[in-house]
Amino acid sequence: MKHKGHNVYMVSGGVTKFAKSTPEMDFRLRVKKAFDYALNDANISLSDIDGSVASYFSDHFQRQLMSGIMVQDYLGLTPKPSKRVEGGGATGGLAFQTGVQEIASGRMDVCAVYGFETMSHVNTWKGNEFIALASDTNFDYPVGGFYTGYYAMMAVRHMHEFGTTVEQLAKVSIKNHGNAIHNPYAQSPAKLTIDDVRNSPMVAYPLTRLDVCTMSDGAAVAILASEEKAFEMSDNPVLIKSIGTGTDTMRLSDRPLGKVTLLPNEKESDYRNLKYPGVHSFRAGRTAAKEAYEGAGITDPLEELDVIELHDAYTSSEIQTYEDLGLCKYGEGGPFIDEGKSELNGKVAVNPSGGLLASGHPVGASGIMQGVFMFWQLQHTIKKHFKDDTLQVKNAKRGLIHSHAGTGTYVTATIMEAVK
Amino acid sequence: MTINRDAKMPETQSGTEVYSFDPLVVKSHYEIDYIHSYGQDSEFFRALGKKKLMGSKCKKCGYTYATPRGHCMMCGSETEWYQLPNEGRIHTFTTCYFGSEEFLSETPFNLIMVEFDGVDSLFMSRLVGADQEDMKIGMKVKAKFRRNQKFSPTDVYFVPL
User: Fold this and answer.
1) Has the ipTM of the complex gone over 0.90?
2) A161 touches chain B (CB under 8 A)
3) How many H-runs (helices) and E-runs (strands) does chain B carry?
4) Does B121 touch chain A (CB under 8 A)?
5) Could you tell me if residue B31 is inside a domain?
6) DSSP bridge partners of B106
7) Residue A258 β-bridge partners
């Protein structure tokens, strides 16, 4: 079996409050705060940690190369092993999975995965330029490199293929910003209406300001451990059941028009006339989900998952991702939100934290933040950490975290399970 | 060897822009010119000056690319240059009202993905001569070329046919 390494558990986590700009501390102190929260919460001492993985996306934002070692050093983790993992927006998800591999391989018993990004060193439009440099600089960036523009083109095609509406996109924004009202770590909690979303300034048609996540400063830390250590350190660890990762071409223009990669709950006849993935769907997301489901023995994700934290950098990408993850068939993402299936008390709670749209998206931290919020959901400790019970998903036993880069170039899916 | 105990760093007139004292936030400038090679993609940019839009075709499996690449993603074989038609259709589109700092002064601008008959992949470009409301998926568009070549992919752009 592909994933038959040692069992891996998450034993603790910490997150800083994400904010547009927090100049009173730098990235090292920000990680330190999340790290100390995680250590204190599970009574872990520095000497328990065998090594680490550093997660941050862009050297441009801080204009500091090797920021990872500066964090390692500040936390007091030198001379233990560490490395940086980077993969655009999926940096956090990839780093989290790298931490899982460090334990599964038997190399480490306890691994700290720390993620951070300090985006406030430049203005929003310069930040967008840095992010757009993560598109092909020969053919894509010079044409008008702007990620919201790329996602807008995907959304327009999704609307054309499947009849998805701007109101359905707006409902994702309303749900996630609304959930964030009860998440004290979130950057942009808000009670919104469809009119609020549609009347906010148009960024790239059809996406408005409220369809798009924001620049953030933030850090998040996950502590992973082997089975023996996990139960020594905690009476309530969470099992990392399986991991999956997919990739796709850097350029949207190169995406093939072929057949759908099927999940166990789908058949070829479901998609007779669909050219896949085109620019409307994320083959990397589907590939990641397929591998993760196989590792966890999941054959009907909507029935077998209780809570999901997915990479909603755009409202449209949340709808696209419902489909990639097989929560509904391709083309049914719009009705899925209409029917309230992804609401906090819906069939499967999607982004109960508020997601990236409302929690913020300090790139290298986002995927780790999802891991921490999922950990608290599955531990049933949301009330303790949020000082508010509202977002605790009742009977949450099994969850999925999903991290996503570029126009869907690297995507990770990780399944986590409560053991208590 | 000279030991000079009165040595001093020279004082200069240049200063630092300070945004805030607590915490101390200062301006830090960064600027660089790159020597960017288009490598195996060079022919695409040269051909735009001859009003030719060049894609790639796999020598082995025949897969065709509207955006060139030196090797085929389907079979790994080398591709050859392949001239694309000058006319295509809008596969998808958007109008950017904001953008990266470099392109902010050009907003609003239209981005489109172009599909060509008989070509397996797409090409991203600008569309001029149409507003957001005018663009439709399937709309026919035609390539135009800048007279003064900049050796940028925007040496080609599209207009409604």
Assistant:
1) yes
2) no
3) 1, 10
4) yes
5) no
6) none
7) A276
Let me know if residue B34 belongs to a domain: no
User: Which residues of A fall within a CB distance of 8 Å from B102?
Assistant: 129, 145
Domain count, chain B: 1
Query: A411 CB near a chain B CB, below 8 Å?
Result: no
CA distance B141 to A354: 41
| B84 lies in some domain | yes
Size of interface A-B (CB pairs under 8 A): 133
CB distance A23–B25 less than 8 Å?
A: yes
pLDDT digits (tens), chain A, 420 positions: 456 799 999 999 999 999 999 999 999 999 999 999 999 999 999 999 999 999 999 999 999 999 999 999 999 999 999 999 999 999 999 999 999 999 999 999 999 999 999 999 999 999 999 999 999 999 999 999 999 999 999 999 999 999 999 999 999 999 999 999 999 999 999 999 999 999 999 999 999 999 999 999 999 999 999 999 999 999 999 999 999 999 999 999 999 999 999 999 999 999 999 999 999 999 999 999 999 999 999 999 999 999 999 999 999 999 999 999 999 999 999 999 999 999 999 999 999 999 999 999 999 999 999 999 999 999 999 999 999 999 999 999 999 999 999 999 999 999 999 998
Closest chain A residue by Cα to residue B39: A138
Give exposure, A221-247, as e/b (b: 16+ Cβ within 10 Å).
Answer: bbbbbbbebbeebbebbbbbbbbbbbb
CB of B75 within 8 Å of any CB in chain A?
no
- Minimal Cβ distance to B100: which of A128, A160, A202: A128
Determine, yes or no, domain membership for B104.
Answer: yes
Contacts of A282 (CB under 8 A, 6+ apart): A248, A317, A320, A321, A324, A404, A408, A411
Question: Given an 8 Å threshold on Cβ–Cβ distance, is B97 in contact with A149?
Answer: no
- Identify all chain B residues contacting A406, using CB atoms and an 8 Å cutoff: none
Say which of A160, A251, A252 has its CB closest to residue B137: A160
Structural domain of residue B59, as residue ranges? 41-160
Distance linking the first and last C-alpha atoms of chain B: 77
Q: How far is CA A415 from CA A1, A5, A242, in A?
A: 17, 15, 5
